[in-house]
Amino acid sequence: MAKQHTTKRDAMPKLSPALSPEEEEDQLVALATQLAKKQLAEGTASSQTINYYLKLGSSRERLEQEKLRHETELLQAKTEMAKSMEKSEELYRSAIEAFKKYSGYSGEDEDRHE
C-alpha cells in the first residue's frame, strides 16, 4: 500500500483549546466546512454534502435567511419599544405624584370614598 503524501494545504490546522462551548462549536463548524471544501474540490464529497451546499447557495435559502434577519430585527425593536413604554409609564406616574404633592393633594379624599 502506498503512503499518501499530504501537503501543508491538506493538513488540518492546529486549534487552540476552546474557552467556551460556543467557541468549540465554531471551531468544529470551521473544520467541517474545510473538510467539505476539500472533498468537493477532490470530487469525493457525499451527495448529502453536495446537496447541502447547493441548497445553501440557492436564492430561496438567501430569502429565508433575510426573512429570519428581519424577524429578529422586528423582535428586537418590539422588545425595545416595550421597555421604552415601561419607562414612559414610570415617568408619567412619577410626574403625576409630583404634581399631586405640589398642588397639596394628600390622597386622603380617595381613602374616604372607598
Your description of this structure?
By secondary structure, the chain is mainly alpha-helical. It contains four helices and no strands. The chain has a domain at 27-105. The radius of gyration is 30 Å and the shape is elongated. The protein starts with 20 loop residues before the first helix and ends with a helix.
Write a brief structural summary.
With 114 residues, the chain is mainly alpha-helical.
Q: Into which percent range does the helicity of residues fall? A: over 70%
Identify the quaternary structure here: single chain
List the total number of helices: 4
Shape field: elongated
Ranges with pLDDT <50 over ≥5 residues? none
Main sheet specs: none
Overall residue-averaged pLDDT value: 85
The helix/strand class is mainly alpha
Strand share of the residues? under 5%
Could you give the count of β-strands?
A: 0
The helix-strand sequence is HHHH
Distance between the termini: 97 Å
Radius of gyration: 30 Å
Write the layout of secondary structure elements.
Blueprint: H1 21-42, H2 47-56, H3 59-102, H4 108-113
